[in-house]
Write a structure and sequence with these properties.
heterodimer; A: Rossmann fold; Helix Hairpins; about 45% helix; B: alpha/beta
Chain lengths: ~350, ~140
């Protein structure tokens, strides 16, 4: 896109308001943030700006003097700044400050809260469908524990006692892992926790969760992971994206079985993830609607219609792209593309 | 056709009857087998409905199998399908459902189909053995 198509915006103030604005505006392709400034070099928005590769400036005069700037957003809340801007307003530039900027801040906060609520609502609605899977995975080890413990009460052979006690310990470990996985999944995604995340590890974690939501019987798994594939984002949200896409893929193959393929690859500074099924496919006229909120093909009461909407919201927030390719009765592939994480940043992967 | 009776001798040991345990979890099969062997039952295993059908249709099992214990959530032929097959092809073999997921509607429908008992894991050994004993009685009645 030609840079002249962009609305060039400068942000003054890098406190909580500036930071939230930065996150929001950064997701809009037609907006170019020319820079952000704050008197306080430790302001949280400045660090975020560096992560997003937005120029950080200390001097307000330089920032508002940037060529071609069309909007200055002042979220400092400082009346002196408001007066200064009014006196030094560059030609053809709008200024948003004072009560207008406070109102905007309110709206931004509300938007991000709503987004989090929608995600949580959908996640909790989905957990209802885990009941059968959880019951199966908890009651099976419990049956083993019960049978072995009953036997141990009478067992004479010491070797058998040792072996069976070991089996009980293993069964308890397996059961407690279920609770650990699920509490991690169901908790509210922690806000603004952008860290390098290993995609292969996250896909495997999602696979474990998705097994509760749907039956993987008669489904063949293929994994093609490129080692070291990592992105930057919120690990809880990314887990949610993968659980959602894997669950959809398995549901598409529910009646007939099929192959679920998970792939990751790193290419030219980009990381790609492909989740493919060989299931029922999506009708071509439905494809434009699948990312819309409240769109669902499931019977009433089964789907929230928020799954893919939330997936897309999260992917966009991570500056990624999501694409879908589907053929009726052949299957569906979702492809996600993200900017690659620099290897220096990969030290601690979530 | 000559009638086979359980309670004779299988493999040189006293046998109170032959039970087929159908469950995809080897741990469950192992522990159910252990529980039932203590009561003198001869226990066969199958990992899914397809294998269960294969087992009952092979050799002497067609006649010698007394009771089947079946899980519901299984790969290949699941419990619901396997039970329907057994009810229509081997109506004289009493069935016990042993499932990890209690579902009232499903339980009612199974009992209506003639399933003897609907047990939810984890089930105590005594309860399982008495369910099998009841099923064995029914099997005896079918033979008369």
């Amino acid at each position: 896109m030609d840079s002249s198509d962009h609305t060039k915006v400068a942000i003054l103030g890098a406190g909580r308001g500036g930071r939230a604005l930065l996150d929001l505006l950064h997701q809009i392709p037609s907006i170019e943030i020319v820079g952000i400034a704050d008197r306080d070099p430790a302001a949280p928005g400045l660090q975020r700006a560096q992560e997003l590769r937005v120029p950080v400036m200390i001097d307000v005069t330089t920032l508002i003097g940037t060529q071609g700037i069309s909007l200055i957003m002042d979220v400092t809340g400082d009346p002196e700044m408001e007066m200064y801007l009014r006196a030094h307003q560059p030609p053809h530039t709008d200024i948003l400050s004072g009560s207008a900027s406070r109102l905007l801040w309110e709206l931004v906060q509300r938007e991000s809260k709503l987004e989090a609520e929608l995600l949580q609502a959908e996640k909790l609605a989905g957990i209802g469908s885990f009941a059968a899977g959880i019951a199966h995975d908890i009651n099976n080890p419990l049956q083993l524990i019960m049978g072995l413990a009953e036997n141990l009460a009478e067992e004479q052979n010491l070797t058998a006692v040792h072996e069976q006690a070991q089996d009980i310990i293993e069964a308890v470990r397996r059961t407690s892992a279920i609770c650990r996985d699920l509490t991690r999944y169901s908790r509210r995604a922690s806000p603004h926790e952008d860290v390098p995340v290993s995609l292969n590890g996250k896909l495997d974690e999602a696979l474990k969760i998705a097994r509760y939501a749907s039956s993987f019987h008669d489904i063949e798994m293929v994994k093609r992971y490129q080692p070291g594939a990592a992105v930057k984002g919120n690990p809880d949200e990314l887990l949610h994206v993968f659980v959602n896409l894997i669950t959809n893929a398995v549901h598409a193959m529910e009646q007939v079985g099929g192959t679920l393929t998970l792939e990751t690859h790193v290419l030219d500074g980009q990381v790609g993830i492909r989740i493919s099924d060989t299931g029922s496919g999506i009708a071509p006229d439905k494809i434009p609607e699948i990312f819309e909120p409240f769109f669902t093909t499931k019977v009433p009461g089964k789907g929230t219609g928020l799954g893919l909407y939330n997936v897309k919201t999260i992917v966009n927030k991570m500056h990624g792209l999501i694409a879908v390719d589907s053929q009726i009765d052949q299957g569906t592939t979702f492809t996600l593309t993200f900017p690659k994480v620099e290897s220096a940043e990969q030290g601690c992967l979530s | 056709m000559s009638e086979y009776k359980s309670g004779f001798f299988v493999g040189g040991e006293a046998c109170n009857g032959r039970v087929l345990v159908v469950d995809d979890e080897p741990d469950i099969r192992k522990v159910v087998k252990m529980t039932l062997q203590k009561a003198g039952y001869d226990v066969l295993e199958a990992e899914n409905g397809e294998k269960a059908i294969e087992t009952i249709n092979s050799g002497e099992n067609r006649l010698m199998l007394d009771v089947m214990i079946c899980d519901i959530r299984m790969p290949k032929v699941n419990g619901i399908e396997a039970i329907a097959y057994f009810r229509s092809n081997y109506p004289h073999v009493p069935l016990i459902v042993l499932t990890g997921f209690p579902d009232t509607d499903m339980a009612t429908s199974f009992l209506r189909q003639g399933v003897v008992d609907y047990l939810v894991k984890p089930v105590e050994g005594e309860k399982l053995r008495s369910a099998v004993a009841r099923a064995m009685e029914q099997r005896e009645l079918a033979r008369l």
